[in-house]
Amino acid sequence: MLTSLQEPIGLHRPLLNPMEDIQDQLAAEIAEVEWKDLIPHAQRDAIIVVTPCLDLLEVGMAIAQDNSKAVQHWISESLIVKPSAQELSNWHRQPHQRFKTLIVQPFVLVAGDSQQAEIKSPIA
């Protein structure tokens, strides 16, 4: 379980083999979190919804490694997006709804629900 949504990953652990360690650290940080714990991150506009066709860890790795080519491609294809106003409103009404999340500072990646067919807000 995630110890704190305020704690950036990797800052308290030394990296020996950066590629493997980053992936292992990110994998260890994936957790299910209730919406009520994500509200502060939504208020600072840090939530990014990752479509179900992408792997949360893969997206986290790309962001952590500053792979702008992959990230820009996913943004252009609306595969990673900011949550829509409707999604945020729905989630606020269900504070105990659980989300699979991954923190990659300054963002909180949230696995998208394949049942949601709402219009998404592009990442600015």
Task: Write up this protein.
This protein has five helices and five strands; from the N terminus they run H-E-H-E-H-H-E-H-E-E. By secondary structure, the protein is α+β, with helices and mostly antiparallel strands. Strands 1-4-5-2-3 form a five-stranded mixed sheet. Helix 1 (18-29) crosses helix 3 (56-64). It starts with 17 loop residues before the first helix and ends in a 13-residue tail after the last strand.
Gap between N and C termini, in Å? 30 Å
**Tally of domains:** 1
Q: Cα-atom Rg, whole angstroms?
A: 14 Å
State the secondary-structure class. alpha+beta
Key words describing this protein structure:
disordered N terminus, alpha+beta, 5 helices, 18% strand, single chain, 124 residues
What's the short story on this structure?
The chain is an alpha+beta fold and about 120 residues long.
Element layout with pairings:
Layout lengths: L17 H12 L1 E4 H9 L3 E4 L5 H9 L3 H9 L3 E2 L3 H8 L5 E7 L2 E5 L13
Parallel strand pairs: 2-5
Antiparallel strand pairs: 1-4, 2-3, 4-5
